[in-house]
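Regression check, flavin-adenine dinucleotide case 399:
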Amino acid sequence: MDLKYSPEELVFQDELRDFLRSELPAEIAEKVRMGRDLDKDDMERWHAILNARGWLAQNWPKAFGGAEWSAVQRHIYDVEAAAHNAPRIVPFGLSMLGPVLQKFGSKEQQDHWLPRILDGTDWWCQGYSEPGAGSDLASLKCKAERDGDHYVVNGQKTWTTLGQHANMIFCLVRTDASVKQQEGISFLLIDMETPGVEVRPIILLDGCHEVNEVWFTDVKVPVSNLVGEENKGWTYAKYLLTHERTGLGGVGASQAALAAVKRLARAENHNGKPLLQNPHFAARVAQVEIDMLAMATSNLRIVSQAAAGGAPGLEASMLKVKGSILRQEINDLARRAAGPYAMPFASEAVEGANDVIPDPNQAGPVAAQYFNNRKLSIFGGSNEIQRGIIAKVTMSGGA
Ligand SMILES: Cc1cc2nc3c(=O)[nH]c(=O)nc-3n(C[C@H](O)[C@H](O)[C@H](O)COP(=O)(O)OP(=O)(O)OC[C@H]3O[C@@H](n4cnc5c(N)ncnc54)[C@H](O)[C@@H]3O)c2cc1C
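Current build output:
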């Protein structure tokens, strides 16, 4: 195991830093730094800049127009992008559907859909979860019935992230209710402009519109939009989830968030001294820093294994649990550092209106971030589910 960057990786890191300094629009970086909501244009603009450099589809093979970065390069990008306040890359087309189509899609599907993910023609969202089918995903009920050269889809998806921006949704649908749950699921690509598709907003604890319900009433979907074979969708769904979980540790984002807490605690006074010098606060910051160093090292270890051809399994679950706990701890520290300034988590502070709360440290979005990041221990497979996976593998001697 080699935890140091190679000379080539150090050159890559420099190249990346130059790129981020020169190409990342300052107004977008400022929104990210302030924890403000990014609109669709911001996200599409950043995607287009990365795509022009050939760095948007970082994990895709070159044959499909990807950058084909190694796991270490992707790790370097995560850390540098977060340090420069770059927006996160919207994962649904690039990290989730793309790899599924490359492995299981037909040549026609690959030729049609993959370039449209890269150039931003399509914005995809993920239609997996339903009310009553989250952790127990295989119990999903949204059904697709074959009618000639179409499927007719009826049912509901929920928690659909950024579905309000999407024109396409990849869905798990039930195509056979008479067999074992996992064996009657198919993977379908649905145009959200088809009659019968309705998107309804869900407003989260932070007051923001990030997730949605998506309803389907007699929605006609061409059979050519079925990925792979009918009733084999569970295999494709699981393959997608391994891609979703990799990177959920969020080392780069946590490092950037902790740096922001320290800035806040240096500027904020407590009994005549910077808060960062308060022994209780400093001890919590130190504990988070120690945990983060340990996580960053584990992350590098896993990345290094992946570079040597190993597949992260159990480790991805461990990173997801630890990463989300750490991030929530950092959000809590920020909330405490901002003190009363964090109290009114006015949506204006998040959306960037002029009348933000007049505090010297611009702590307006702190509470919103605190509330929003409760999601980290729920989505991508909740922490309880991940702990279950870790326990099962460990007890069976597979660790
Ligand atoms: C902000 C946000 C964005 C999301 N975006 C998307 C999206 O874009 N697309 C999509 O398809 N889904 C999305 N999800 C859904 C997400 O994947 C589910 O919320 C998650 O899988 C948990 O399912 P659930 O909410 O139905 O909770 P449940 O499965 O009902 O779980 C409730 C509680 O019980 C615990 N629990 C359940 N089963 C077990 C078990 N076997 N052992 C121990 N504990 C258990 C869970 O950990 C949880 O604490 C999103 C969720 C959130 C919060």
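Comparison notes: The beta strands are 124-127, 143-147, 150-157, 168-174, 185-191, 197-203, 209-222, 226-227, 269-270, 273-274. Confidence is low (pLDDT under 50) at residues 352-360. No diff flagged against the previous build.
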